[in-house]
Specification:
- The chain is an alpha/beta fold.
- It has a domain of 168 residues: Rossmann fold (3-Layer(aba) Sandwich), CATH 3.40.50.
- The chain is built from 7 helices and 10 strands.
- The strands form 2 sheets. A 6-stranded mixed sheet has the order 6-7-8-3-9-10, with helices on both faces. Strands 2-1-4-5 form a 4-stranded antiparallel sheet.
- Strand 9 and strand 10 form a beta hairpin.
- Helix 4 crosses helix 5 and helix 5 packs parallel to helix 6.
- 39% of the residues are buried.
- Bound molecules: adenosine-5'-triphosphate (ATP) and magnesium ion (MG).
Length: 252
């Protein structure tokens, strides 16, 4: 069985005059179904580059990216759009809700091509909005909601097509810390229900809410592991202590 997301030596290079910018530099990693992973790193470290590749919005310069066992690098524009619709749900910092449509209509939009009847589309969109606690706002316009509520609606829109992966790029970036935690709580709930969540953030306090952290620096992975390990949240210029204190057995 292949992983849901699999990067094998993925590179994304940009030629800028005489220099080559290595936005992704031989990145290899796997994300399995049901994981909650945060991709972190400073500005310019390659987070959006990875997100765009994972999200089939861009393809690697070299290396292979397989989504659900399918090689994305060899796909044309139409195939990329198709696999995106089929397997991915996106959440961005800006909620990108259409202002003239009600929440229900906004959330129904991704289902237009799903081959469902109108009443099924309705039902699914309603359920998705209920899942994020907006079951009582179906007929409201986005402008009648708070920022946190709009972001929850955009989560419902990402969910409604039952994607294999929920991809969130700085989903709390435009929210105050309390509302941000609320939105994060919804992502955690979705993960507990079995969804695969990939979260991009530059904020360590957000990243530690995931199970696993992948930290990027200059287009390379410098940490990949448990989000609770101390080295998961250190800054790139951190120099590790030479020696850890030796634990005495039975001294607890
Ligand atoms: N289209 C492009 N052309 C040239 N260089 C690019 C392009 N896109 C990204 N880069 C460069 O690739 C590197 C990684 O950029 P990326 O957008 O992935 O960083 P990021 O981690 O998302 O940063 P931020 O936190 O600021 O969003 C940067 O040095 C950036 O300047
Ligand atoms: Mg970015």
């Amino acid at each position: 069985m292949s992983a849901l997301i699999e990067f094998d030596s993925v590179c994304k290079y940009y030629q800028m005059g005489d220099t080559v910018v290595k936005a992704a530099d031989h990145i290899s990693m796997k994300i399995e179904k049901g994981e909650f992973v945060a991709i972190v790193g400073q500005s310019g470290s390659g987070k959006s580059t990875c997100m765009n590749i994972i999200g089939c919005l861009d393809v690697p310069t070299s290396g292979t990216y397989k989504l659900n066992g399918r090689d994305v690098g060899s796909m044309d524009k139409n195939e990329l759009a198709e696999i995106r619709n089929e397997l991915l749900g996106f959440i961005f910092q800006q909620y990108n809700l259409l202002p003239k449509l009600s929440l229900l209509e906004n959330v129904e939009l991704p289902l237009v091509y799903a081959g469902l009847s109108r009443s099924e589309q309705h039902q699914r969109a309603k359920e998705a909005l209920e899942q994020v606690g907006l079951g009582n706002k179906l007929d409201n316009k986005p402008s009648q909601l708070s920022g946190g509520q709009q972001q929850r609606a955009s989560i419902a829109r990402a969910l409604v097509g039952r994607p294999a992966v929920i991809l969130a790029d700085e989903p709390t970036g435009a929210l105050d810390s309390h509302t941000g935690r609320e939105v994060l709580g919804i992502l955690q709930k979705l993960h507990k229900q079995g969804n695969t969540v990939v979260l991009i953030t530059h904020d360590n306090s957000i990243a530690v809410q995931a199970e696993r952290i992948i930290r990027l620096e200059d287009g390379r992975i410098v940490y990949d592991g448990d989000s609770h390990a101390p080295e998961a949240v250190v800054q790139p210029n951190y120099i590790p202590q030479e020696e850890e204190e030796t634990e005495q057995e039975g001294s607890v």
